[in-house]
Specification:
mainly alpha, Hydantoin permease, two-stranded antiparallel sheet, 19 helices, 2% strand, globular, membrane, transmembrane
Length: 461
Amino acid sequence: MTGSPRAEAPLLLDTSPPRTLGFRDQAAFWTNLGVSLIGFQSAATVLVFNGKDLSLAASVTAIVVGTVIGSVMLGVAAVIGTRAGAPAMAILRGLFGTRMSYLPTVLNIVQCLGWGVFELTVIAMGADALFGGGPHWLYVVLAGVLTTAMTIRPLGAIGVLRKYVAVAVGIAMLFFTVELVRHGVHDPSPGNWTGFLPAVDSVIAVSISFVPLAADYTRHARSTRSSFWGAFTGYTVSQVWCYAVGLLALLQVGGDPDRIFSTFMGVTAGWLFFAVLVLREADQSFANVYSTAMSVQNLLPRVDRRILTIGLGTLVTLLALLVTDFSEYESFLGLIGAVFVPLSAVLAVDFYFGAGRSEGGAARSASDKGGGGRREGGWDLGETAPTRWLTLLPWAVGFVVYQLIAPAQLTGWADFWPSFWAHAQNVLHVHPQVWTSASLFSFVVPALITWALTPLLRRGL
């Protein structure tokens, strides 16, 4: 059903979404999400491996390869969202059953809250650089208010991003690209490709963080073609561009991500274009807060999303005022990849080849009374969808594969984590090499296992 241009996202989970977003809306939305202040800083995870710089060619290639792989996963998730017409975590009812879908839902809530807090902090850091200091707490509060306001009318916010913000961001990115290239580009370590695949993994981890959010927006797409190509092209072009600009800026400050904002501000009239990038960073926090609300609705389907987004926006703002240590950021990315890379593999294979492909009887509308008696192919997305225990197996195996290759280097209360996986590596005689990719292996292995289990999965096991 096609909604009017003024239609907004449903307030409750059991309401059919308006299909108002075309290719340009999708492309502009994902283009904006692909450019971020975090992305500029994250280029440091590509540039340096084990304390040694990669060559410029290796770094750029890792950015392109990692982004394309992550964007394909994003595009597949986007298509599933369009076909199912449901938010991302509600779709997992079909994969795991309703009650078992609560597990990835809680993990996604934690992820989105973490990203939301980090984004507000980065916006405040950008404002600090822009104004030469000032009341950090005020920047956080203003960013939180803007973020929360955007979540109340999410489709309207996406419309504003398409009409105005995407153009302004494109101009700012072009300006910084030209200026940074004019200042010269040097190769930090010519010919060094050692650490190429870990660099690819770090880029995929950032891309994959949007996979469990994609359907929250693409369920409003008019067609699967527009949702796939909008997400794939928009995110690929913008993230590659963002990382490349971040790489150029890092090379001018000795690879120190803490000084990267000063590079942008040091360019003539750079403050003006940097202000555009700081202001538009709110689309990142908007996406995380709104998707947190969509995840919570999988647990509480009859709670008005506006109440959820206002409450969650307030919570994220308060946490951003209290949390100041983000030293675990790179390890956080590793855990995100370990959870959601294999999950995306199981989701895609079961949807296209397993139970999602089988005939499950007549489809019932998502607006059926009772909070979702919807059925997509052979997938039951209703509140009473039975638990499918077998789908947990490939997901768990994929998580283990990822951690055996690239265990998250957690510290503090979780300092047992890397030592546990180091012991497991010794016991299992698994010794990762520079050519082993945690993301690729943890995607392919659970995908093959899920495909092998397809006859059983089609029977609803």
